[in-house]
Amino acid sequence: MTGAKPSTVGVLHPGAMGAAVAVQLSSRGHTVLWCSQGRSEQSRDRAVRAGLHEVGALPELLARCDAVLSVCPPATAFDVAQSVAEIGYDGVYVDANAIAPETVGGLAAVLTGAGITVVDGAIIGPPPDAAHTARLYLAGATEHVGFLAGLFAGSRLEPVGLGEAIGRASALKMAFASFQKASRVLAAVAHSLADEHDVTDALLGEAERMSGRILAERDYLPSVAARAWRWEPEMREIARTLEAAGLPAELAEAASAVLARWSADRDLAELSPEAVLARLRIP
């Protein structure tokens, strides 16, 4: 198989991300199919706007496709894979959903048990379009990752190989999303607390002064650990403040518990990032 020639690819299913991925495939000359069976009118509308070709049932889609991309809500990823395993498929199945490495491992076991080739995928970034790019990380056999990379070569969805071990792409997605999603939730809690005390404008002012590169600042982690002895009780006070305002305090309590793992590192800023992170694995 080679991604240089036009291929036929199935997308399960055309949500906002799936439809955007399909457009990128179409832009490279590939034929993209979707299965309308059991799908909503919203899915149909997205598929039409994306220029996807409709098939009425999953067996027909699988029979026609060189590769199938599963891009669906995490809660349905296993069911989608199970439905493909029950029918059988001789192309490459890519699970590109936000699921744990353990989940994709179980899913891959079901598919490979049915003789189906599996590649672990993870999309990071917004739905790709003329104004936005994203990355498709891929982990699996070199031949199949190369084929898939060829499908997207030159598109707004950049393929990136992560080696052959199934679960590596999903692990990256979990690591990145653990920060990205949680930070958005934390922002909502912070704004709710500021609103409660009528200090929102001041909060926004401080936010404008913050660094936007927290996740990239790995070398700063020893400084965090060295100050954990002060930050841990501060997080407990934050939890009290949130509870008093009728807001969820669980994230602050969890942060306090993490900081407690660095309690022995008081003022030890010379620790390496690796040593600091190793502390988090100690129960």
Automatic annotation (TrEMBL):
Residues 9-143 form the 6-phosphogluconate dehydrogenase NADP-binding domain. Keywords: Oxidoreductase. Pfam families: DUF1932, NAD_binding_2. InterPro entries: 6-PGluconate_DH-like_C_sf, 6PGD_dom2, 6PGDH_NADP-bd, HIBADH-related, HIBADH-related_NP60_sf, NAD(P)-bd_dom_sf, Pgluconate_DH_NAD-bd_C. GO terms for molecular function: NADP binding; oxidoreductase activity. The active site is at K173. Residues 194-262 form the Phosphogluconate dehydrogenase NAD-binding putative C-terminal domain. Belongs to the HIBADH-related family. This is 3-hydroxyisobutyrate dehydrogenase-like beta-hydroxyacid dehydrogenase.
